[in-house]
């Protein structure tokens, strides 16, 4: 078995919480902080840390606004985030094909 594909996995995305966030955002144009937090059953601090890491990597953008006089934070994948996630999924598929018994 060739270990190279495993070594190429994007460590920013590969972490369980960040992978869940990226997956949710790949399926939706944007999501609110509370939607993601509640769906993923994360604490405010935990999801904030993951979002910050993804933002620093250039994978997601954050928009702050107000809705009904309440703060609203939404997240969306950037073009770089969409490309990185697609590459990550393609690499996983390659790993699966490589390890699948024939």
Describe the protein.
This protein is 61% helix and 18% strand. The chain is of the alpha+beta class and 102 residues long. It has one domain: Orthogonal Bundle (Arc Repressor Mutant, subunit A), CATH 1.10.10. A three-stranded antiparallel beta sheet has the order 1-3-2. The radius of gyration is 15 Å and the shape is elongated. It starts with a helix and ends with a helix.
Quick description:
The chain is an alpha+beta fold. It has helices at 4-8, 11-14, 16-26, 33-40, 44-56, 79-99, and strands spanning 31-32, 60-67, 70-77. It is built from six helices and three strands; from the N terminus they run αααβααββα.
Short key terms for the protein model shown above:
single chain; 102 residues; alpha+beta; Arc Repressor Mutant, subunit A; 3 strands
Largest sheet: 3 strands, antiparallel
As a whole number of angstroms, the C-alpha radius of gyration is 15 Å
Helix content: 55-70%
One letter per element, helices H and strands E, the order comes to HHHEHHEEH
Give the rounded overall mean pLDDT.
Answer: 93
CATH superfamily: Winged helix-like DNA-binding domain superfamily/Winged helix DNA-binding domain
Q: Enumerate how many helices there are, as a single number.
A: 6
Write down the overall geometry: elongated
- Which CATH top level class fits? Mainly Alpha
CATH architecture tag: Orthogonal Bundle
